[in-house]
Amino acid sequence: MSHIFDTQAPKKPANFSVNSDLLVEAKKLKTNLSATLETSLIQIDSAKQRELWKQQNKAAIEAYNQLVDENGVFSDELRSF
Fold first, then answer.
1. Cα 52 → chain centroid
2. Where are the alpha helices (DSSP H) in 1-81?
3. How far apart are CA 40 and CA 66, in angstroms?
4. N or C: which end of the chain has fewer CB within 10 A?
């Protein structure tokens, strides 16, 4: 899987606020907050990157879909289903 960031970049401290009860529960369960935050950020950023790509390529996708609707795809004659 290719990443949208440098996986070898050094760690950097961050200051953020979190619901105090949620933090207590996470500590009780020995949740690794840094790893959990990184995993969540990767998922969120990846989803946002996909949406951005779709928006940036919307015209090309629509043009391709129209072309397929009008002409089919090159393998239509080769399909056996």
1. 10
2. 20-28, 33-56, 58-71
3. 36
4. C
